[in-house]
Design goal:
This protein folds into two domains: 40 residues; 148 residues, 60s Ribosomal Protein L30, Chain: A, CATH 3.30.1330.60. Helix 3 packs antiparallel against helix 5 and helix 5 packs across helix 6. The chain is built from seven helices and five strands. The protein is elongated, with a radius of gyration of 34 Å. By secondary structure, the protein is α+β, with helices and mostly antiparallel strands. It has a five-stranded mixed beta sheet with strand order 1-2-5-3-4. The longest helix is centred in the N-terminal third of the chain and has 24 residues.
Length: 238
């Protein structure tokens, strides 16, 4: 009788599983080598990469401070910028002197100085005709003088248009919002074209009757509320 063949055990039992196991061990080794490399590398470069990613995700602002990327709080008080942090009294005094010199001939110009900004106000009833956004020629000398003053300092400038609460509705200006922003834009364009103020420093805004200086209860108060304000912000142009 011939020899019986030994019965092979059921269920396999080959060595194919070793390939999968070797792949897993290799991946783990690469993973730990990568961690070790990052941990022992240049810490400054690693932090730079981390900050770049966080800024890209909106989790850090350009100054390197953390941010949620959702709602930002009010900005810190801005300082009138000078390269060597000079005393700001000279600029404030120059603005006061300018307004004082002009007020005798142009009493419709006023100025105020606060911690965050310097505001030069031009009464709208003199600088503009009623319902018109074109600048009156009477305001040209004042705007040129203001432009010279602006060019002496490096600060950003915002031109604001304001109105009283009397409604306006024309084909060109459906409301006081459109009229106020058009006046602010025209003053901005005049400062660029005739006072050589850099457009990179200027912005324009229109507020309609939302920010009155006085209650709109008398014609005198309404005239004061109709104005264009040239605001010198206490921040430098980078």
């Amino acid at each position: 009788m011939g020899q019986r063949r030994k019965k092979q055990p059921e269920g396999g039992g080959g060595s194919d599983w070793l390939c999968t196991f070797n792949d897993l061990v290799t991946l783990l080794m690469v993973f730990f080598v990568l961690i070790f490399t990052m941990g022992s590398g240049d810490s400054e470069k690693i932090m730079e990469m981390r900050n770049s990613v966080m800024r890209g995700l909106g989790l850090m602002d350009s100054a390197g401070t953390g941010s949620s990327g959702l709602v930002k709080g009010p900005p810190a008080a801005r300082k009138l910028s000078h390269p060597e942090e000079e005393d700001t009294s000279e600029v404030s005094d120059e603005i006061k002197d300018y307004v004082s010199d002009m007020s005798s001939a142009m009493p419709w110009i006023d100025a105020s100085i606060s911690e965050n900004e310097v505001t030069i106000s031009l009464e709208g009833s003199v600088a503009f005709e009623p319902g018109i956004a074109d600048i009156s020629a009477r305001a040209f000398p004042a705007l040129k003088g203001i432009g010279k003053l602006i060019n002496k300092i490096p600060n950003a400038v915002r031109v604001e248009g304001h109105s009283d609460n009397v409604p306006i509705s024309t084909s060109k200006f459906p409301s006081n919002w459109e009229l106020s922003i058009a006046r602010a834009v025209n003053v901005t364009k005049y400062l660029i074209a005739h006072a050589n103020v850099s457009p990179l420093r200027l912005s324009a805004a229109g507020y309609g009757d939302s920010r009155p200086l006085h209650p709109n209860d008398t014609e005198k108060h309404k005239a004061k509320n109709r104005r264009v304000e040239i605001v010198l912000l206490r921040e430098d142009i980078k």
